[in-house]
Amino acid sequence: MDKAWFTAEELKNKGELGSSPQGINKRAREKNWLWQRRYGKQGVTKEYHISSLPLSTQNELYPQQYPLAAEEPAAYTVSHHDDPIKRLQGYLAGMKPDEYAVLLGFLAEKGAAGLLDLISKANR
């Protein structure tokens, strides 16, 4: 396989995905697709890993490597998204530079205990 990461623009009309990059990005957020930043001429965009995409889309991109299954997978499957460290790393990687700077400043000033206290207060 030559390529494993795709932008919403590249995924338009692939498999069951629609023609709108905004709709693809919305679906990616709702389904918690694995993503990373791609820096390009027009700024920063997200690109999604092929393993997160629907089977029909995987099949259209690489038919030999991702043949369509006879049936859909079970509703609950264990994935890398269940690992809290991986989820945190993905979230941090997706932060804007100014958001990341604010987080680091907060942690430098108040530490992890301060962050946990803030989270605890917000969940009450």
TrEMBL record:
Protein's UniProt keywords contain Transferase: no
Family annotation (SUPFAM superfamilies): Putative DNA-binding domain (SSF46955)
Keywords: DNA-binding
GO molecular function: DNA binding
Gene3D superfamilies, A to Z: Winged helix-like DNA-binding domain superfamily/Winged helix DNA-binding domain
InterPro entries named in the record: DNA-bd_dom_put_sf, Mu-type_HTH, WH-like_DNA-bd_sf
Domain HTH Mu-type: 2-69
Protein name: DNA-binding transcriptional regulator
Taxonomy of the source species: Bacteria, Pseudomonadati, Pseudomonadota, Gammaproteobacteria, Enterobacterales
